[in-house]
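Hey, can you fold this?
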Amino acid sequence: MSNLLSATWERVYFKDLLSRFLFVSAGWIEAYAPGRDPAELRGKTDFDVFTQEHASLAFADEREIIRTGEPVVERVERETYTGRPDAWVSTTKMALRNERGEIIGTFGITRDVTAQITAENALARQAGELSAQNERLRELDRLKDEFVALVSHELRTPLTSIIGYIQLLRDERVTGMDADHFADVIQRNAERLLHLVDDLLFLSQMQSGTLALEVCDTHLAGVAAEAVQKMRPYAARKHIELTLSAPVDPHLPVDAARMAQLLGNLISNAVKFTREDGKVEVALAVEGDQAVLTVADTGVGVPAADQERIFERFFRTEATTRRMIPGTGLGLTISKAIVEAHQGTIIVRSDEDHGSTFIVRLPLALASR
């Protein structure tokens, strides 16, 4: 038995009642005391080989086994002796008994299971990632279903209005003033449809990686002024004060049409989510090597839990859904894509029920790619 265990590469030891070594295998020596003679360790303890911490833990285990006779069976734990954070062992310790069944010491065997634990951890990590991905896919499916329903509604409402007012226009009793009003309603709803189609086309280009910019030197203040002027009628219907502060007029290389789209989205959202008699402020400034656009409103605000998600495709806050505020959840996704295509950043600062401020930073000069 001694000869057999001496040659094994398993980490085996026998100890007496005082936790002094009686025997250690070649594998134990190789792992814990390389270069030492096994015979040299007889009569010594773990405190002669290991650190105080490691030896104290082992000694405590052996005292408990000797006291109760209960073994420790295949306990998987970190290998503290090596100091490697990724080393794991499976340890079995039990009472060593004589022919009368009396406990005369302890016996132990330790196996290196680092590879097994590493593989299991990797599998668990992959399973966790797969579960998270599946959950994300389920969430995307749910959002897409909501998106289809929203788009259907967004299409049906203006189309129904257009068809209805066209029928009214065909009524011979309609006067000139009524006809002008009907034409205005038809035009607004047609523009609403066009805006929706443009958003869907933009999303398609963004997903396919075919989004192209027509960059030229642009007066940003002029683009901002046009965007604000375009949104004034919508703000006026809700008695919202819409203002522009542009004490500077930075020239920077941007796609002017995309900048107009960006500002249109942000201002439109601000007006949409601001109650009547509220206020929307658009401001333009220069800070260092960046142009800074801000759109601030006194609207319903964005809950803190939703602020990281509002730029995601199709995402709409619970408050938006509850208040039945129309929209597809694409405006901010598109806005972020436009900003990032210009090597800029966009963030939101918001307090629920106290309004939101969207801050866009654009480089005055685009970096070469």
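Oh, and this one too while you're at it.
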Amino acid sequence: MAKGEKKESEEKKSEHKITDLPGIGPAVATKLEGAGCTDLISIAVLSPAELSDISGVSEAVARKAIEAARKMLDLGFQDASEYIKKRAEVIKLSTGSENLNKLIGGGIETKAITETFGAYGSGKTQLAHVLAVTAQLPVEKGGAGGKAVYIDTEGTFRPERIKQIAEGLGIDATKALHNILVARAFNSDHQMLLVDRIGELIKEGEKIKLVIVDSLTSHFRAEFTGRGRLADRQQKLNRHMHNLARLAEQYNLAVYVTNQVMANPAVLFGDPTRPIGGHIVGHSSVFRLYLRIGKKSSRVAKLIDSPNLPEGEAIFYITEKGLVDKE
């Protein structure tokens, strides 16, 4: 396909609305938008049963709408030479520490979920604050030239810390605070609703390039207690992770989540620390980092999982200006 034809094809795809789908009129579209399905891709990835439940149409109508959405988007296979061009769109956000950047391949990637877990005081929230500022830097300086969304589930966001980090990087502190959209989530439903709202904000013109959820599992852990409710918790958490992954891919933004830990009593030797969320969070996160307190006030980051990087460790320090390699 010629360059001009390809551009024209992409423009046509972007012009399509969900009301262009068969069986989806204004009333049904309103229901779908209320459930967070505001574009073709959000319809194309649903099953007929899911779309039927959300919209109230029959499964036969839902199936036709899904097939039409997939056809309009031209979803299917492509050769790896085309895929590598898409990978060129990925931006890497600096953590401030060259050691940590090197460990994770240059920085926190867009189009991916990066999870950190560790005990309190290990630096998870500190890294979240640093990323909220560095995301605003130009791409050539380790940023993404955009805004950050900070979903705070434990009351740990501190604007005073943002000011310190911004001043350390030579950024106007007032402007840095203005470019961070903060919301306190009071339960798991509210947390998921806030994630749905991010897509709407982007469509309204907000240049969001980073989403932070600190912490990911706090409310899920508190609300779903006991083994009898474990399956319900995991299903809900799975849906939450899929929504975050879809945001990352659809809008080329980075998702950074912090996670709580527990001690596994079955581990007699070695570190018994395990992240909450089990395989659901593990499989949904593209990069997983285990943070712990090291010697002489240092922090140690261990890369647990990555699709393309080897396991390794990096040492960094937390200072007033952010994350640095030397104390």
